[in-house]
Amino acid sequence: MSATDLDNEVASHLKSLLPDDSYASLRDTVLPTLLSSIGAVAEALRTSSRVSQLGSSNSFGDDQLNVDVAAEDIIRKALSSCPSIVTASSEEDPVERMKTDAARVEGDLEHYTLAFDPLDGSSIIAPNWSVGTIIGVWKGTTAIGQNPENQIASVLGVYGPRTSAIVAVRHLSAITACFEVGINFAEERLATELLRPQVRLEEGPFKTRYFAPANMRAAAENHKYMELITHYISQKYTLRYSGGLVPDVVHALVKGHGVYISPVTEKSKAKLRRLYELAPIALIIECAGGVAVDPVTGERILGKAIENTDERGGLICGTSHEVRFAIHKLSG
Amino acid sequence: MSATDLDNEVASHLKSLLPDDSYASLRDTVLPTLLSSIGAVAEALRTSSRVSQLGSSNSFGDDQLNVDVAAEDIIRKALSSCPSIVTASSEEDPVERMKTDAARVEGDLEHYTLAFDPLDGSSIIAPNWSVGTIIGVWKGTTAIGQNPENQIASVLGVYGPRTSAIVAVRHLSAITACFEVGINFAEERLATELLRPQVRLEEGPFKTRYFAPANMRAAAENHKYMELITHYISQKYTLRYSGGLVPDVVHALVKGHGVYISPVTEKSKAKLRRLYELAPIALIIECAGGVAVDPVTGERILGKAIENTDERGGLICGTSHEVRFAIHKLSG
């Protein structure tokens, strides 16, 4: 696959963000392939209603897994056409494996590691709510133990009434950017559209203010989280919380403001995987001008290296002053 | 369009629910046409990312309306092939109009009135969250002032990663039923699938309990609603609230339990339209074995006639004991 498979506008936009040919593979092959595979996952979801519907509370288990595995397979298969991706791991198969032929790729100076969550939000697949894919692209042959600055791109795929993706790029000679692409993949053909050339989290003030309180049950045993939620209600914030990490974060990005809170309390352990969920989302949020921090330390998610593929944490992200306020309330 | 356009399983299911030929048009034309038009609306949404995306907080207004109007047009056009539908009105055009040729339909003893909300959830279209269509089918030439028992069928279309619909049928010789259909409409061809022959709201107990608190801002000025929300949090209910009426109600239907609350308080007026939103949803919920009541009076939504197309109200619906508890807390 080459950049010509993308709509001209999207291809030009990528070219303007990554003019340096030391990123040629990322620009012309890796990112187009990832967008295409998101289109293919969307098509698989759209036509597999019977498989998906089995994932109800009545019949949880293996059948639900099928959709996750299908998404995993589609993305893995797509990667095989990207020689510059030498290592990949996913939330479904959380072991970094180098491609067996990776060492043999000659004349290609670009080497990338992919870390992805093929289908996030399995609990809301059965009722047909929007779900998503999360992908981080790292420079080099591993993401573990690396400076988070090496994560130079990330992509969130959103499967809803239509298919869309938020893409972030940030590294040295690349221009820091966050943009939205519309994707339509049907009958093996990919159509893309540049929807928002610049996704930005603004400071406001806004008439409507949004909050997304994840793991609200934790507030039952943590008075600070309960007080924070009560604060939002009494201040008449608007609740938008689907329980899908991708749609919940993308809501803020598309509306241009908002705060997402997934706290960690004594009785409620950290749930989100740093490699497959937190790091890619943090890059998107930061490239959009927002802030993504650890709810316990208040420090940037991207402030420290990821120790292993199963390392977990909480998340507060969104508009910077909203994130600062939430951290102040939870840790104060 | 005839029933043969439906998948055999869906057509047989409808035939088993409506064996009486006095419902032949409803069974063979009206319901298949409505399912088909939901497929067509899904296809329109899927391929109109640019129109939809304009509906962000930055550029609200006419552009957003385009998607609503497109859905309205698709459904209206479909109705023209249903001679037994003699009257129709919608949330976009809330005036009951009888078809000009309606009086001339001879030999057809079935006459139906349609009341529909073509695209509910405009505020969450831009971020690509699931949205829906709501349709009520009434016996006779008007829905206004009629016994709500005359609403003999209703349909909720869900536009998410795939397209699905919940259908309810209840009247005299018809068998009371609520079922789920998978819909795939592409290249002018409709494919349907019977996903859940019986959608049921069960009493539990369940390990996970869901709540969907609409208009949470009202709790800022209403301590009873605030206490109810605090109760759910302290009892560790799981929050699922997208802000889209259709996906929020369908979440409970597909999970098999849950409660949706849209209160009416002194400062927060009733918002949901009885004709286009409340009545069709109440029929679905009741046919699934649940309860749908007015939050002020505690009485059945379907307990009294609809006075005009703009009449509004609140809603508490879902699993019966959850609804009773919420009413008790809000009115107690």
From TrEMBL, chains A, B:
One of its GO terms (molecular function) is metal ion binding. Belongs to the FBPase class 1 family. GO terms for cellular component: cytoplasm. Signal peptide: none annotated. This is Sedoheptulose-1,7-bisphosphatase. Its cofactor is Mg(2+). The keyword Metal-binding applies. Pathway: Carbohydrate biosynthesis; Calvin cycle. Keywords: Carbohydrate metabolism, Hydrolase, Magnesium, Metal-binding. Pfam families: FBPase, FBPase_C. One of its GO terms (biological process) is fructose 1,6-bisphosphate metabolic process. Residues 30-170 form the Fructose-1-6-bisphosphatase class I N-terminal domain. The keyword Manganese does not apply. Coiled coil: none annotated. Residues 207-325 form the Fructose-1-6-bisphosphatase class 1 C-terminal domain. InterPro entries: FBPase_C_dom, FBPase_class-1, FBPase_N, Fructose_bisphosphatase_AS, SBPase.
